[in-house]
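Proteins fold reproducibly. Look at a concrete instance:
___
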Amino acid sequence: MSMIKKIKSLTRRELEIVKLIGEGYTTQQLAKELFISIETVRTHRKRILYKTKAKNMMTVVISAVLADMITITMAA
């Protein structure tokens, strides 16, 4: 399965996490922003990596941007 198909298999919440990671959020910031525990963020990360078979989250972020699944906005 291609990386784009794997990215498209991610849930809305998983894509939200990928987007925020791409914008530079830390695990702690993700938990606070999404009103979830740090352990839940870690679980989401593990599941994203498992589903995509990626070696790291940056690969997932780049692939999601290239697949037009997310748009990254950087703070000024």
In short: The helical segments are 3-8, 12-22, 27-34, 38-52, 57-66. The first helix runs from residue 3 to 8.
